[in-house]
UniProtKB/TrEMBL annotation:
The protein's name in its UniProt record: HdeD family acid-resistance protein
PANTHER family associated with the record: PROTEIN HDED
Organism lineage string: Bacteria, Pseudomonadati, Pseudomonadota, Alphaproteobacteria, Hyphomicrobiales
Entry's Gene Ontology cellular component terms: plasma membrane
Source organism of the structure: Bradyrhizobium cytisi
InterPro entries: Acid_resist_chaperone_HdeD, DUF308_memb
Transmembrane segments: 21-38, 44-69, 76-95, 101-121, 133-152, 158-180
Domain of life where this protein originates: Bacteria
Entry keyword set: Membrane, Transmembrane, Transmembrane helix
Length: 187
């Protein structure tokens, strides 16, 4: 005879879902940190640049380690060069976080502008298949890129921190919403 434990409902991944109080606690913590970040976006822009710098150094070191570990795969020189570039980029971000934040913000503005233009062209080209949503998404990307680039370098002082704060705030609200989900009845 087989028995099943229905005490922890399983999600789509097959893993037990977190309890309601864990979701509420995580949500409240993320909302709190999001509001803290939004309270001083310039400070957290610098913190973000430092964090990205350390992650770039770790990634570069792993890339170089991987190149020596898998020598027979080809592309050894390119992997080492890429690793060195990651490390150099990380060192620049750590040694001059304000300049690094400006570089990251400029790159973000260009990326948003270019990807927005591409999405707009795809939306226009696929208009009959519901391309209006893609066109609107592209227009938003272009506008966000232009806001960042036309206000540069001043936007470099607040954009990364603002995006981090909004992300934390929305993530926290998502966890709180998840906590308020109806509990499935055990059968």
């Amino acid at each position: 005879m087989t028995t099943y434990d229905h005490s922890a409902p399983m999600g789509a991944t097959g893993l037990p879902q977190p309890s309601r109080w864990v979701c509420v606690l995580l949500g409240l913590f993320m909302v709190f940190t999001g509001l803290m970040v939004l309270g001083d976006v310039a400070f957290f822009t610098v913190i973000s640049a430092l964090f990205i710098g350390w992650m770039a150094i770790a990634t570069g070191a792993f890339e170089i380690f991987h190149a020596f570990w898998t020598k027979g795969w080809g592309g050894f020189v390119w992997q080492v060069v890429l690793g060195v570039l990651y490390i150099a980029f990380g060192i620049v971000l750590i040694s001059q976080p304000l300049t690094g934040a400006l570089l990251l913000t400029y790159a973000l503005g260009v990326a948003l502008l270019v990807s927005g233009i591409v999405r707009m062209l795809i939306g226009i080209g696929r208009w009959q298949q519901g391309g209006g949503i893609m066109l609107a998404s592209g227009l938003f990307g272009v506008l966000a890129g232009l806001v960042i680039l036309t206000g540069f370098p001043m936007t470099g002082l607040w954009v990364l921190g603002m995006l981090l704060g909004i992300d934390l705030l929305s993530h926290g609200i998502g966890w709180l919403t998840f906590a308020w989900r109806p509990v499935a009845a055990a059968t």
